[in-house]
Each structure stands twice: as C-alpha cells, then as structure tokens.
Amino acid sequence: MSDDLRIKEIGMERSRVEGALKVTGRAPYAMEHGAGHGVQEPLHAFLVGSTVSRGRVLAVHADEVRGSEDVVAVLDHTNAPRLADTDDEEYAVLQDDEVHFRGQVVALVLATTSEAAREGARRVRVEYAAEPGEHVFDEDSEGDEPEKLNAGLPPSGSTGEPDLALASATHVLDETYRTPYMHNNPMEPHATTALWDLGPDGAELRCFDSTQAAHSVRSTLARLFGIEAGRVHVEASHVGGGFGSKGLPHAHNVVAVLAARSQPGRWVRLAVTRQQMFALTGYRTATISRFRLGAGPDGVLGVISHDVVEQTSRCKEFAEQTVAPTRHVYAAPNRRTSTRLVRLDVAVPSWMRAPGEMPGSFAQEAAMDELADLVGLDPIELRRRNEPEADPETGKSFGDRRLLECFDRGAERFGWSERGPARSRLEGDWYVGLGTAASVYPAYTQPGNQARVLAEPGGYRVEIGAVDIGTGARTVLRQIAADALDVDLDAIDLRLGSSDLPIASVAGGSSGTSSWGWAIVAASRTFRAQHGTSPEPGDESVAGPPKKPVDEDYALHSFGAQFVEARVNRFTGEVRVPRMLGVFSVGRVVNPKLARSQLVGGMTMGLSTALFEESWRDPRFGHVVTDDLATYHVATHADVRDIEAAWLDESDHRANPMGLRGIGEIGITGAGAAVASAVTNATGVRQRSIPVTPDKALGWE
Amino acid sequence: MPRISLTVDGSPVSGDVDVRATLLDALRERFDVTTPKKGCDHGQCGACTVLLDGRRHLTCLSLAVAHDGAEVVTAAGLGEGDELHPVAQAFLDHDGLQCGYCTPGQVCSAVGMLAEADGTPSHATDDLEAETELTDEEIRERMSGNLCRCGAYPGILAAIKEVAR
Ligand code: FES
Ligand code: FES
Q1: Contact at 8 Å (CB) between A432 and A658?
Q2: Which CATH architecture does the domain made up of A35-131+185-280 adopt?
Q3: Which of the four pLDDT bands, split at 50, 70 and 90, describes residue A335?
C-alpha cells in the first residue's frame, strides 16, 4: 500500500446522504416499488408453511382456493416451474414432496390483492405423511465433527499437550457456557418484487430485493433458474437492515421467482411475514461451550481448551465458527478447540451478526471473568498477563494489537476502580455491579470487487454494486471516492444498490467498506493513470484491488473493551443497564458520526441478546413458538440508557489503502459477557449463560 | 367493496377497499402511500405509525373501512414544502437512524408524543400529581412502542430532546 491516499474527506463527520429520504419515509424498500418504477398491478404472493417437521406432502387441496375471486394461481410441488439446480435443499423449493422442517414452504397462493392471497393461503389444505423428527439439542446431544466451519475455518485444532497442562495447573476452571437460539429480526421483513420478462431475445429476470448482496442474489438465481447472470437484474436501493439474515439468498427469493416464472410478464410481490421469518430466513444456533482453562499461581494461562456443541438443519449444513475467537485472543502454550454439530429436522441456521465470534467470545470472556475470580485477580489484570506476542493460532504478527490500551482507556473513563467485590453494593432495592469483557473481530477483505469511475460534466460518477443496509455505505464510499480522486465531495455522484453496477461482495463480515472502498481507490487510480486529471466527460475506468488483497503476513483483527454497569433488583431480579462503554481499536474511522451509530448499534444488539433474546422451540415440531416481536423481545428505547462508543485514533496501513478494519460486528462481541460479568459482580451469582433473565440474575434458576 | 375517502398528507384519496384490508395495507397497496412501513403487522413494532386525526396510531391494527373520512399524516407530510419537519431534521442531525425502516414511524411517534406530553403521566412518572417534565426517562418510556433493530435509540433520544427544548 505504497501510494498514499489523500486523507481529507475520510475522517469527517457527514450526515447520511440518503437521510432526508429516510426521515420522510420516501426511500423505497423492496416492496415499495410501484408504477413509478415500472411495477404495474403486481400480483401478491402468500406462502403456506408445512405443519409437520419431517415427511412427505401427499396432497395439496386447493381447488376451492383456485376458484375463488381474485386468486390467480396456487403453486405446489406438482405444478411449480422446475429449477435447473436442486442441489441446495434450502433453495429447492416446491421441487419435490419432501418436508425437512416445520414452516418449510409447501405451497404459495398468488392473487390480485394481498387480502385474497392471504385468505387463500389460510384455506389451502395440505395432507402429509408425517415421520418422527428430531428437534432437541441439549447437553446430551452427541453430533459429529463437520468438515469445515463457516468462513472455511477448521472445526478443531490442538497444540501442545492440553490434557497434561490441565492436570498440572494450579488453577483449573472447567465450566459450561451457553448461548440460546437467536433471530436476526431486521425491521424490514425479507421481501422480493420480481418480474419474469419474456423479451424478444429471451427471458430477463428483474427483482427488487431486500438483500445485503445484490450480486450474490443475481448469481444464485441465474444458476437456479438456468439463465445467464447478465439477464438477471437485482436492485436493492434501500434495505431495512439485515444483520446477516439477508447476506445469503433464502427460500423466499427462489419462491418469488418461481411465482413470477409461472406468470411471465407480471410483477409479483412477496413479503415474508414476521412469523415466517423465524422459519425461513436464518437464525443463530444455540451453542454449548465447555471451557477449560489452566493457569499458574500468577494467573498466566498454560492451557485453553474449548469444546463446542451446536446444531444445524439436517437438510443444509451451517456450522457456526464458535471456536474462532478462542484461537486468537489469549496466549497459552497448550491449546485445543473442537466442534461437534448436531443435525436436526429444523429450520436452516445462517449468518447472524458476528457468527461464531459473538457466542464464542461470550463463552471465552465469561470464562476469563470467572478465572479472574478463581485466581483472585482483577479481570483486566488477568487479561494483561495473558496478552500474546503474536497470533496464538498462526504465529503471525497482529500488526497493531491494542487491546490493552482499549481496556486501560475504558477503565479510566468508566471509573473501573470503583468496582468492589461481588455483592458489595446495594443502593435501595438494587444491587449494583461493574463488568468488562474483550471484543474481537477479524479484519476481512473480500476478493473480486470492482468499481467504475466515469467523468461527467463537473464531476465524477462512481459506481459499485454494493448495498447500503443502513451501514452508511452511500455516505462513506463517497468520502473515500472524493479522497481517491482528490476532488471535493460535491464532485462525486456515488451509485450503488444494483447488480447492474460493477461486481461487489456482500455487506457482511464487516468487510463492506474495506472491500468496496479499496475497489473505488483502485478504480480511481486506474482512472487517473488512463485519463489524467482533466478528463473528458465520458472517460471511464473499471478496476479493482489486486487478486489477493489481504496481506498474508499478518493476522489482522480489530479489538475492543466493553464496560457495563448493571443494577439488579434484589426482590424481582430485574436487570437494568444504566451505563455501557465500548473502546475499540478498528483502524481508521471514515465517518465518526456514522461509525458511532454502527458501534453503538452493535453494542445495543449485544445488550439485547444479553438480557432478552431467546427463541423458544416446541420440542415436538422444532419450530419457534416465540415467533413475533411481542414474544421475541428485542431491546426498546426504555432498555437502552447511556451507551457510548469510543475508539483509538489510528490507521492500519496493513489492512487496505484506507487504513480501516471494519466496524459492523465488533460491537456485539463481548457485550453479552460484559453484562454477565457486571451482573455477577452485582449479585454474586455467577452468570454462565445469556440471556441473563431475572431468575438467573438472582440464582433462582 | 366499500369505498373510502381519506386525506393523506393534505391530499384527498379515495377508492374501493377490501373489508379485510388494514389501514396500513390500504395506504401501501391501494393508495401507493409507502411512507408507513410494515415491520410486524401485529402492533408490536411501531413501524406503521402515522398521525391519525392528530394522534399517533398503528395503522396495521385498524381496518381501513373503519376510518372513512380520516385525516392521515405520515412522515412525508410533516414538513412544510421541501423543508424537513424539525423532528425529522433533528433525526438527521443526530443520526437517529441507520437502515431507515423504523424511522418514519419513529418520527411520527415523536411528533405525536411531544403533542401528548401535556402533563399526562406515564409509567415512568414518579409524581402523578405534579406537572410531568419531559425527562430522558419519560421520552424513552413514551417512545418504547417503536422498535429500532439498528439501535439508533441514543440518536433518537438526542433528536427529540433537542426539539422538546
Ligand atoms: S407494523 Fe404496525 S406495529 Fe409493526
Ligand atoms: S434505523 Fe434500522 S430499524 Fe431503526
């Protein structure tokens, strides 16, 4: 990264470019494209979900529905268009009679109004040959070792002699830490508006989709429907959050296009209902982590061992990388990680904000908190004594690792020195405690991104097929483009949100700004090399970063330290969090105003998972019974008090030309453990699982 | 199908609506008014909040036919011409939004809440006799029907406080 990038717009507080559209409700989301966007008289689709978890569909009785007013069609596995590729069971919707989980799409009603579609779906009668399914995952589940974890990581690994080291350690901690099923629940339900257009030179597929990755929706649909990718056009101009659940296409994408395919020339709108989202759009698996730590008298770790059991759907494997943070945060000569995966007849899990890193760091940080107690050390001091010189997993340098600085800054700002022994502070009816935990997230840059720079009269149009799901991409990429082209912000017209723009990777893995920003920097440099500083309107260049963008010599990670004050009512066990502070080391911050929102948003979701979030399954069918926002509780205004995010002033030139490492996910990692640590300090009852409900807080569980 | 007429953001609209249609679906699908959002369809998230005859209202919880003649103001109709409403402007200034999907509901709810806070106590009010003051606690309590999964709550609070001042 030799060529220095101008740093002038980068680092400035800027309001969201599309902010005025959003505060007035005028920004169009996937279901909101009407005649103005060419969507005339759309048909409405409503899904029918299976009521058994395993078996076969014997018959779909829909004659009466077909004959009713306003209903246009009813699709099931006998009459839906055939896909070109049915290898992926999640995507092979309505292709055969097999049922893999309760809530799987078994039919769909298309009507001219949404009321008729919904009513029709209610009246479709499905007959099944049900088979007994397996739905329960708990400490008795065995599972097997998956080949790979998400992100391509190995499921297990071992260095040194972990068993011997445990046997000879002065302090041994051997405990189990749990995280529950969680659902992403972005505020905008997943939705697709699709048209199968029979043009004179063949079919074209057009979609307005609520996705984090327009290009991957395009390539997936092209493969499934057997048409060229160039004939698929996916637009996602505004997306109402995703948190991973819109990172990959899900069944609804396919079924919406099946419906459109069955009615060529007519637009079809499909929105997944909030309840259906709990079965169809991914979720985070529950995890059970056995943590064994062995330390010397001074608290210096000799061994870290982490054995995870988690679950997936029998019809499609997704293995959360819960062991990932264990490999990179603390030093110990002897180490072991292992993962076992239990396959059940349940919905397909997928990405949720910081997959693996979030539940894994909960387990590790809660274990470190507990070890600090065992050894009799301050939790920050314990971490200081176990700070590694290099990445424990690979031996590579971290480049910049400033975790301890985050702890020290945070401790001072938060008033950590006021923390007393467990259950030592009672104010009125409330026990008060302070807690802390480390945050960690790898710095990813995705390969294969491209951007286009086009000279226009008076400025530049900069295009990339990325998606702004609320991260602020529209705003920060514009700032990066201004610096890359060395022009004023006003001279940049930044376009994104469509698969017709140059290829871009997913808004996920905290990799958006680094990957897309780098492509914009590369395209700008190419543009200047090809067209100079006074180009003619119409001059353009398309380019991307080098093939292997990441510097393989380093183990680049972001770090942070979170601090929480918890108050627990001594009679009711109600937990309140009046103060929360995160200090992060994330490389350069492009736009402090929007970065603060991202980090605070991540911490807020972390607080929410720490106190409330848990999807409850019916053991008989494996579906989620808390399948709405009244029973799956997410943090509200009243739950969120003083949440503050701060960061170190830095730039990581090893990561990318902008010097940034991504901020979308680190805020949720460590937040749960910091809350658990604070509640433990308040009540003296050790917290080893989230959510920390009132019964657990007071130890009545 | 019965015919209803509404005033939406100052303009009259009318048309036939299904008796089963919620006010939210009638606005979004029949009258092409997509400013109120659908987050849950069950009165649990607040994304569909509008001002109905001056008070905040969850449009997914009411039937369109029950509101013939009503005056609906959505987030798009709050400002004067091209000027943003002060609450909307404050949301922008304090970055009280990320994905923006909850935002029109939050903005309408905030405007309605400020008008309601006329001394009526809430769950967060300590002294039921005294004049209620719009403390942080009161604002959070009164806004808790509007969920924001992006976690823009601190920015929203700051925005409302600025306007309330
Ligand atoms: S859509 Fe009306 S409250 Fe959620
Ligand atoms: S801004 Fe995304 S849900 Fe509130």
Answers
A1: no
A2: Alpha-Beta Complex (3.90)
A3: very high
Task: Answer whether CATH 3.30.365.10 is correct for domain A150-182+284-443+553-697.
Answer: yes
Residues in chain A closer than 8 A to B139 (CB atoms): 637
**If phi over 0 gives left and psi between -120 and 50 gives alpha, with beta otherwise, what is residue B141?**
alpha
| Cβ of B51 less than 6 Å from ligand 1 | no
Q: Answer with the residue of higher pLDDT: B81 or A596.
A: A596
Could you tell me the pTM of the whole model? 0.98
- Residue A616 is given by DSSP the state P
Pairing of strands B71-73, B3-8: parallel
C-alpha–C-alpha distance, residues A36 and A52, integer Å = 42
* CATH 1.10.150.120 boundaries in chain B: 86-164
In whole angstroms, how far apart are CA A25 and each of A22, A76, A148, A545?
5, 36, 43, 36
Q: Give the pLDDT band (50/70/90) at residue A2.
A: very low
Task: Tell me the two tokens of residue B155.
Answer: 């920015």
For A92-111, how does the pLDDT look when each residue is reduced to its tens digit (9 = 90+)? 999 999 999 999 999 999 99
Average pLDDT over residues A580-598: 98
| Range list for CATH 3.10.20.30 in chain B | 3-74
H or E stretch at A681: helix A671-683
Q: Is residue B43 within 6 Å of ligand 1 at its C-beta?
A: yes
Q: Do domains A19-28+445-543 and A35-131+185-280 have the same CATH topology?
A: no
Q: Exactly one of A9, A463, A613, A665 is catalytic; name it.
A: A665
CATH of domain B3-74: 3.10.20.30
- Break chain B down into helix, strand, coil percent, rounded to 5: 35, 15, 50
Residues in chain A: 701
Q: Could you read off the pLDDT of A202-232 as tens digits, one per residue?
A: 999 999 999 999 999 999 999 999 999 999 9
The CATH number of the structural domain formed by B86-164 is: 1.10.150.120
**Contact residues, chain B, for A35 at CB < 8 Å:** 32
Q: Is A665 a catalytic residue?
A: yes
**pLDDT over 80 at A3, yes or no:** no
Is the pLDDT at A551 greater than 80? The verdict is no
CA of residue B105 to ligand 1 center, whole Å: 9
Q: Can you read off the two tokens belonging to residue B2?
A: 């019965």
Say whether the ipTM exceeds 0.90.
yes
Q: Ligand 2 centre and the CA of A637: distance in Å? A: 12
> How close is the nearest chain A Cα to the Cα of B111, in Å?
12
Q: Which of A141-150, A165-174, A434-443, B127-136 bottoms out in mean pLDDT, i.e. has the lowest?
A: B127-136
Task: Assign B134 to helix, strand or coil.
Answer: coil
User: Which CATH number among 3.10.620.30, 3.20.20.30, 3.30.365.10, 3.40.50.150 corresponds to the domain A19-28+445-543?
Assistant: 3.30.365.10
- In this predicted structure, the answer to whether residue A13 has a pLDDT above a threshold of 50 is yes
Q: What are the structural domain ranges in chain A?
A: 19-28+445-543, 35-131+185-280, 150-182+284-443+553-697
* Cα–Cα distance measured from residue A475 to residue A582, given in angstroms and rounded to the nearest whole number: 24
Query: Are A605 and B91 a contacting pair at CB < 8 A?
Result: no
Through-space distance between the first and last CA atoms of chain A, rounded to whole angstroms: 55
